[in-house]
Design the sequence.
């Protein structure tokens, strides 16, 4: 049985030695009780956020260290410059940002100003979490914002957000290696390689490569990346993820002939072993891959590794012209904000060229206004990353579908892409994916206006 | 004599081999946390950690990136409340179920057995709405309260008290002590191993809790450690060295608690585990 | 003496008082939300949807049983329980027997074997992601290459249709075996030496001692360990979330993972709730069957 003695004498001795209330146990229990009570007291106090007139609650995501520094500095600047308005900033971890914000939204606990990931604008607007700011933005600022920014922040004809930066997506390569392979080097999105040129180049490079894996598609990424990076390929062939506009369906579009053709090509690259799994995220930097399908955030690292040899190229043209992705974090005013005019002051401050440029210096993204763009070293007309800004202003970029169904579309597409990567039948995979998306839209009655 | 020596050596060899398997991943974590970020994946693969390159830089980075002490304090407070309040609530209930006769006893026992099966994720969403509605978001209390009463803990106490020698209680009763006095003066002081072991098991379960704080907090001053690690999951390349350093620091307190309370724990498990 | 009736009601009061806080907490924090989840499973509830809540009858249930992902999850959970429970218990028993000696420093080994239990599963999953990494960079691949003297081709465990689930099983077993070992060790230490001595005198070898002395007397702890492990093996979630994401193509998904993914990633709370209800019924059935079998064998 247990490790207790049953001997009666032993029992008697135990009983005599057992302390009463004031014995050894007493103080321990009292201490435990005290600790528990004080913890509860702290618990009730801690976490209550500041309330008061003239305080603006702002939430943003915690990106790289430099980005956090910049946003903190900007908030400090704003607070010092404005006498009657103070911003109280909360930084939330990026890995859990969307989850935490959604939970807070459901609990009715949102701040005054909220940063969110661009494609989620439609969903938040439909659910009534964020407010339309179109009228408060004013004509001048609206003109100054890049068209891609305005497009991303619009739903149901109203503008709900603005941004400090947009994203750039393209192919990174090394000039020397391309010249060795005899490939031409496109100077702009209009001169992008055709898909046959691209595939011929892949074979050419593979022949001279150790393991034939010459293309880096950032397969180590999870989540949004797949929709962001690879739906432009589908759009470049004339296809899409879902019919845009009211009543758009995924059936016939996501599993349409163009989409199927494009993803079959991707599958063939996987099958031939042309794609590096990129687990350590150093395929391009270490020289294992010659081409890297990546975003603006890799520029600094790639530049450091490849120096002057680095070239930034448009994505290949799958038939209808080269297309690329767009969209990034945006700022919006929530409907629970009681002082939207003052919240707008903070947003305007963020949209000033000075603010934008300091943020873009930290994260390497494309500035969101033309004024800032002109002053940016990387992105102005003679800057090294002018391709990215040209793509955004020249209509080469396609926004991700602006619908409250977006999170489902994205998650379903990621799953489909992974299955295709593992060798599943392309048509059937896309067909099933489209069915899931359409059912989602149907279940939500097509997202009627409130 | 020789045979015994050989057998002992054989046993030691087996033990060492098994230890390597058990310790291996921990060693990986520790060594990885001391390696610069870029080299972690390569080193881990080939188990090739250059002694020259080891440094505490990752640990410094962690403190630089996140308010580690705040997260540690929060995790500690939350778990202290869960363990201490839980000991009281669950221990008392376990005794009442095992030893006393009262109306609803069978009902509560059945409820405990049924709820034992329900994992937290299943009730997370409804509970989230329940407690948000009461306005309990962003407190340390709300991160502790749902876990104070735990079916598994109650069950462990129940089986423990079933095996508790009746002679002790009966001797006290003969002397005229009432039920409650018997409980507080005789039973509790002799149940320390059980309380220690349930405390450890509860602590182990709750220290790494992630989903609930995710749903119920946004403010930084109530954020616990596991949520803090989410701050390192930015765009790749992931800083594996920093993540592992954070992990090491996160389990260091737990390891410490375990090493200190180990003896009690083993004794306690021995008595609770034999209820069947 | 007429103490009995008074004592009875006093005992009743005391019992109720001692158990009341726990009962209240259990009902409020667990039972109530579960009933809410049960209710939601019969609706079309979606997280944050401004559309009105509608009663949907058994539609969610019909949908999930028609979903290959969920069916595969059920299968995986069954496989998990069928494989992990015996393997983990056997390993724990082996370790307990190994450690149940009076050798110098045995306590150190005991601590080492228990150490993995101290780690939160989420952290263990992160470390094992590194260990199972594909290519020569993965520790496991490297180890196998070493053991087979270079004959092993590196494999991407976590994306392999057949190896993803076993990889998760290995992770679970590694993390849990120490706990069971301690329970079984305590049981072993309670077996009186005289029984072994008597058996040896009768001419029994080590294996016979084990079968006829150890195992029968270890019945209690063994059953406890198996029931708890079975319940825990159904709750596999953290490893799936962090290591494989349920892939490739549902090869390593579990019911709990599907439920959480439906409810939190896609906002289909009603569907997640239906899966959770099925999960509850499933585990309840298995647990009841296990206890019935255990009781039968005892008589």
Sequence:
């Amino acid at each position: 049985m247990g490790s207790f003695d049953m001997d009666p004498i032993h029992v008697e001795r135990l009983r005599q030695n057992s302390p009463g209330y004031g014995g050894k146990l007493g103080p321990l229990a009292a201490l435990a009780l005290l600790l528990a009570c004080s913890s509860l007291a702290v618990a009730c106090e801690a976490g209550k956020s500041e309330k008061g007139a003239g305080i603006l609650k702002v939430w943003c995501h915690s990106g790289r260290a430099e980005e956090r520094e910049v946003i903190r500095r900007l908030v400090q600047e704003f607070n010092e410059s404005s006498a009657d308005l103070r911003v109280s900033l909360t930084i939330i971890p990026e890995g859990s940002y969307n989850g935490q914000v959604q939970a807070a939204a459901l609990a009715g606990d949102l701040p005054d100003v909220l940063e969110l990931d661009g494609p989620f604008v439609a969903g938040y607007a439909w659910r009534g979490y964020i407010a339309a700011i179109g009228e408060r933005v004013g004509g001048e600022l609206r003109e100054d914002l890049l068209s891609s920014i305005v497009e991303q922040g619009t739903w149901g004809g109203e503008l709900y957000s603005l941004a400090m930066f947009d994203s750039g997506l393209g192919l990174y390569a090394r000039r020397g290696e391309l010249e060795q392979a005899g490939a031409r080097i496109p100077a702009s999105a209009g001169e992008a390689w055709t898909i046959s040129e691209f595939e011929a180049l892949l074979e050419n490079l593979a022949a001279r490569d150790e393991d034939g894996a010459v293309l880096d598609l950032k397969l180590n990424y999870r989540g949004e990346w797949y929709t962001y990076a690879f739906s432009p390929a589908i759009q470049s062939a004339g296809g899409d993820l879902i019919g845009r506009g009211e009543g758009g369906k995924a059936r016939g579009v996501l599993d349409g002939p163009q989409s199927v053709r494009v993803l079959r090509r991707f599958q063939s690259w996987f099958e031939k072993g042309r794609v590096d799994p990129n687990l350590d995220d150093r395929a391009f930097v270490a020289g294992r891959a010659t081409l890297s399908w990546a975003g603006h955030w890799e520029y600094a690292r790639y530049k450091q590794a490849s120096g002057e040899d680095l070239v930034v190229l448009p994505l290949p043209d799958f038939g209808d012209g080269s297309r690329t992705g767009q969209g990034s974090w945006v700022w919006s005013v929530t409907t629970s904000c009681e002082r939207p005019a003052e919240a707008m002051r903070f947003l305007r401050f963020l949209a000033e060229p000075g603010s934008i440029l300091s943020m873009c210096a930290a994260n390497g993204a494309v500035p969101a206004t033309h004024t800032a763009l002109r002053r940016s070293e990387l992105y102005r007309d003679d800057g090294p990353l002018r391709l990215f800004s040209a793509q955004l202003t020249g209509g080469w970029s396609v926004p991700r579908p602006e619908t409250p169904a977006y999170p489902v579309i994205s998650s379903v597409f990621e799953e489909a892409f992974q299955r295709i990567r593992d060798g599943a039948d392309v048509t059937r995979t896309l067909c099933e994916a489209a069915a899931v998306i359409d059912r989602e839209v149907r279940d939500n009655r097509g997202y009627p206006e409130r | 004599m020789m045979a015994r020596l050989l057998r002992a050596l054989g046993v030691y060899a087996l033990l060492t081999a098994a230890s390597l398997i058990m310790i291996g991943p921990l060693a990986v974590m520790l060594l990885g946390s001391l390696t610069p970020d870029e080299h972690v994946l390569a080193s881990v693969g080939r188990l090739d950690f250059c002694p020259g390159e080891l440094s505490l830089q990752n640990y410094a980075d962690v403190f630089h990136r996140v308010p580690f002490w705040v997260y540690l304090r929060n995790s500690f407070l939350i778990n202290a409340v869960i363990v201490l309040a839980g000991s009281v609530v669950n221990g008392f209930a376990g005794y009442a179920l095992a030893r006393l006769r009262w109306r609803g006893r069978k009902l509560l026992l059945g409820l405990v057995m049924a709820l034992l099966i329900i994992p937290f994720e299943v009730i997370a969403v409804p509970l989230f709405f329940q407690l948000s509605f009461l306005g309990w978001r962003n407190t340390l209390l709300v991160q502790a309260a749902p876990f104070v009463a735990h079916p598994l803990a109650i069950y462990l106490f129940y089986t423990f008290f079933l095996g508790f020698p009746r002679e002790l209680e009966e001797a006290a009763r003969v002397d005229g002590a009432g039920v409650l006095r018997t409980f507080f003066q005789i039973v509790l002081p002799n149940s320390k191993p059980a309380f220690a072991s349930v405390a450890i098991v509860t602590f182990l379960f709750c220290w790494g809790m992630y989903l609930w704080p995710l749903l119920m907090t946004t403010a930084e001053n109530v954020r616990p450690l596991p949520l803090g690690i989410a701050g390192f999951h930015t765009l790749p390349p992931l800083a594996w060295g920093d993540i592992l350093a954070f992990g090491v620091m996160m389990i260091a307190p737990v390891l410490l608690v375990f090493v200190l309370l180990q003896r009690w724990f083993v004794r306690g498990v021995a008595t609770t585990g034999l209820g069947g | 003496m007429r103490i009995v009736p008074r004592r009875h009601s006093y005992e009743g009061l005391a019992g109720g008082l001692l158990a009341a806080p726990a009962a209240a907490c259990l009902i409020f924090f667990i039972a109530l939300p579960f009933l809410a989840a049960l209710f939601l499973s019969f609706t079309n509830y979606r997280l944050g949807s401004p559309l009105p809540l509608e009663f949907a009858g058994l539609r969610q249930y019909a949908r999930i049983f028609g979903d290959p992902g969920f069916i595969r999850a059920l299968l995986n959970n069954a496989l998990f329980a069928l494989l992990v429970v015996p393997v983990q218990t056997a390993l724990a028993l082996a370790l307990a027997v190994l450690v149940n000696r009076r050798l110098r420093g045995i306590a150190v080994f005991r601590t080492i074997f228990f150490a993995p239990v101290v780690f939160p599963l989420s952290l263990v999953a992160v470390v094992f992601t590194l260990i199972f990494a594909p290519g020569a960079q993965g520790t496991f691949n490297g180890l196998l290459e070493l053991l087979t003297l270079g004959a092993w081709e590196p494999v991407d465990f976590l994306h392999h249709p057949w190896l993803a689930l076993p990889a998760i099983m290995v992770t679970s077993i590694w993390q849990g075996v120490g706990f069971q070992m301690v329970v079984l060790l305590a049981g072993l230490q309670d077996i009186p030496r005289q029984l072994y001595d008597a058996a040896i005198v009768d001419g029994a070898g080590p294996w016979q001692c084990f079968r006829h002395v150890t195992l029968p007397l270890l019945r209690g702890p063994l059953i406890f360990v198996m029931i708890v492990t079975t319940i825990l093996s159904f709750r596999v979630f953290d490893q799936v979330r962090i290591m494989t994401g349920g892939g490739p193509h549902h090869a390593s998904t579990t019911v709990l993972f599907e439920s959480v993914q439906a409810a939190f990633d896609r906002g289909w709370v009603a569907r997640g709730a239906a899966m959770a209800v099925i999960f509850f019924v499933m585990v309840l059935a298995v647990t009841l069957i296990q206890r019935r079998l255990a009781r039968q064998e005892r008589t």
Chain A has two domains: 55-167+327-398, 169-324+405-443.
